[in-house]
Amino acid sequence: RKEVEQDPGPFNVPEGATVAFNCTYSNSASQSFFWYRQDCRKEPKLLMSVYSSGNEDGRFTAQLNRASQYISLLIRDSKLSDSATYLCVVVSGGYQKVTFGIGTKLQVIP
Amino acid sequence: DGGITQSPKYLFRKEGQNVTLSCEQNLNHDAMYWYRQDPGQGLRLIYYSQIVNDFQKGDIAEGYSVSREKKESFPLTVTSAQKNPTAFYLCASSSRGAATDTQYFGPGTRLTVL
Question: What's the pLDDT at B40?
Answer without folding.
Answer: 81
